[in-house]
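BUG-361 | component: ligand-complex export | severity: low

The export step for zinc ion jobs runs without errors, but we want the raw record kept on the ticket for reference. Input record follows.
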Amino acid sequence: MRVLGIETSCDETAVALYVGGQGLAAQCIYTQTDLHEVWGGVVPELASRDHVQRLAPMILKVLADAGLPLARRPGAAPAGAAAPVDGVAYTAGPGLVGALLVGAGVARSLAYALGVPAVGVHHLEGHLLAPQLEAGAPAFPYLALLASGGHTMLVDVQAVGRYVVLGETLDDAAGEAFDKTAQLLGLGYPGGARLARLAESGRAGVYEFPRPMLDRPGLAFSFSGLKTAALLAIRGRTLDAQARADVARGFEEAIVATLVAKTLRALEAVPRAVVVVAGGVGANARLRAHLAGAAAARGVRVVYPRAELCTDNAAMIAYAGHARLAAGERAGLPVLARARWPLEELAPPAADPATTHRTTP
Ligand code: KG4
Ligand code: ZN
């Protein structure tokens, strides 16, 4: 089954083609960072408008790259039989609702025109299943640490569609905290990677920031207090280059220590042989080094999907959509986009007569 995946939940426009039994056939990702940088964060309306402009040419490119040009001449062949793909999967939430609606509208229209089924995918299910696209994919169950600009959570991934959220952030996401502190340090947006680079020349122990929530039991995260501590250390002071690097180092160490400690705590509660790290913060070298050391000491393997599968992409949406379409799941008649969508509402893939809807015109 060839499934086209479409991702437009935030500021990446992404399209991919996944072929069952073969793997990822083609993918294309456009990131809108330059569009939003001047505003210091993602502007939802600008994001939606840019998705509108980029999406159709990107779909054509991915299909052409996979040797499946999209061409339907009137009367050429019956719908469905001649379609270049067997299904279309799109991110239906959570995310920016206007941005999601662009992908949902295009995906559902394309599926209708081609006479193939469509399915809406949960964005976080995509992230949690992304390692399945790699060689040596981990077997279920595994623990996932998902740390991005929008989410920070620990999830027990038991099977496709069966996820137990063990803990999540009560306020800011880890990437958001990185970005806001980077902004205070004048590093621009998104500044997580730049802050990490600055921290390399910082000295350990000069700035000691709080390790949020480590003193309390449980697996919840909270980064807003840490962000405020960084604000107090930076705002209204004249910091030379070394002091700015020292702040970056102290801040990064506090976040990394928290993420590592909570991940180890989760492994104690739910012993698993593999930890998957997903989301943009997973690119952080200090996090990788500390987690690798701590996990190895416990005989646990840490898996990082390659960078373009860790951050927002459509390959993960095509993969998750394939799992659901192959089981007979179909989007219902209404075109849905959900800004909020609790992960635990998901169930394993199944054909549900209540929502199954033939899209053949
Ligand atoms: O998963 P992602 O690409 O996009 C979403 O948020 O959906 O994650 C982006 C986040 C940003 O907040 C960015 O600053 C952060 O990941 N990030 C990093 C690093 N690289 C990216 N944070 C810390 N260290 C890094 N090296
Ligand atoms: Zn994401």
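Assignee comment: Attached the raw record above. The domain at 139-304 is CATH 3.30.420.40 (Nucleotidyltransferase; domain 5).
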